[in-house]
């Protein structure tokens, strides 16, 4: 079995960094590169693209809301077309930087609040997916299973790849437990190993209330801003290896 391991990367700005991007790039098969709004900037974006190229890692755009102070996790009252242009601005910037380095952007992954806003509004999801398809119909869109983004992407003919979040708890309905609530982040090694092993062998995950739910995903996400994210990624990668699965970038696995 082939599986993708991805992380949101390049989310610092100026001299500030969230994690060791160089080390993380050696562990993942796909990198979701911040495009300058919630994090990142042109120099960082170029450095991430070059690192991905050096390590054979798939390159993806990771656009968010223009809110550095809130790290793109606070919703903002933009009109649908305003949000569309902000997404396109960021996607276009990364495509240009990647093209200048002789590589292509292969996938797309919304960041935090921007993704939440799109995911609960079918009309907005259609607007965004149509815009992405107009730019590059070959882009793979990272999704959560049965989400509005997944449905809209499929309506417009974009390929998708479902995510399993190794470092976040799920509720019995398969939704993420809100950050800030007890148990929302999963960081201890035994729990992460058990979750990843169960996902790889059975395609399921234990929800925060003990319910076992299906997890039809082919990509595992580790957030780079989770404390200890580099070690978490090493743990996930070791479980992938033990299971007999092999790593592959998103573009090779999407359907």
TrEMBL record:
Stretches that traverse the bilayer: none
One family from Pfam that matches here is LamB_YcsF
Q: Give UniProt keywords alphabetically.
A: ATP-binding, Hydrolase, Nucleotide-binding
* EC number in record: 3.5.2.9
Query: Reaction catalysed?
Result: 5-oxo-L-proline + ATP + 2 H2O = L-glutamate + ADP + phosphate + H(+)
Q: Which InterPro entries match?
A: Glyco_hydro/deAcase_b/a-brl, LamB/YcsF/PxpA-like
* EC class of the enzyme, as a word: hydrolase
Record's family?
A: Belongs to the LamB/PxpA family.
- Please describe what this protein does: Catalyzes the cleavage of 5-oxoproline to form L-glutamate coupled to the hydrolysis of ATP to ADP and inorganic phosphate.
Q: How does it assemble?
A: Forms a complex composed of PxpA, PxpB and PxpC.
What is the protein name stated in its UniProt record? 5-oxoprolinase subunit A
Source gene?
pxpA
């Amino acid at each position: 079995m082939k599986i993708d391991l991805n992380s949101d990367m390049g989310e610092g700005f100026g001299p500030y960094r969230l994690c060791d991007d160089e080390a993380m790039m050696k562990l993942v098969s796909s990198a979701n590169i911040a495009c300058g709004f919630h994090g990142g900037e042109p120099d960082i974006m170029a450095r991430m693209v070059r690192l991905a190229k050096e390590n054979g890692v798939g390159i993806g755009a990771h656009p968010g809301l223009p809110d550095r102070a809130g790290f793109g996790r606070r919703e903002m009252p933009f009109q649908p077309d305003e949000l569309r242009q902000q997404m396109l601005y960021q996607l276009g910037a990364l495509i240009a930087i990647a093209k200048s380095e002789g590589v292509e952007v292969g996938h797309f992954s919304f960041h935090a609040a921007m993704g939440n806003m799109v995911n609960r509004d079918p009309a907005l999801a259609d607007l965004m997916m149509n815009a992405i398809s107009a730019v590059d119909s070959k882009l793979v869109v990272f999704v959560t299973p049965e989400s509005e983004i997944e449905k809209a992407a499929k309506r417009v003919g974009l390929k998708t790849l479902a995510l399993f979040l190794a470092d976040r708890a799920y509720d019995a309905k398969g939704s993420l437990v809100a950050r800030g609530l007890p148990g929302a982040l999963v960081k201890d090694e035994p729990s992460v190993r058990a979750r990843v092993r169960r996902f790889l062998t059975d395609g399921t995950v234990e929800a925060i209330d003990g319910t076992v739910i299906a997890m039809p995903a082919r990509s595992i996400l580790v957030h780079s801003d989770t404390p200890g994210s580099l070690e978490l990624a090493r743990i996930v990668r070791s479980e992938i290896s033990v299971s007999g699965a092999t790593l592959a970038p998103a573009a090779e696995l999407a359907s």
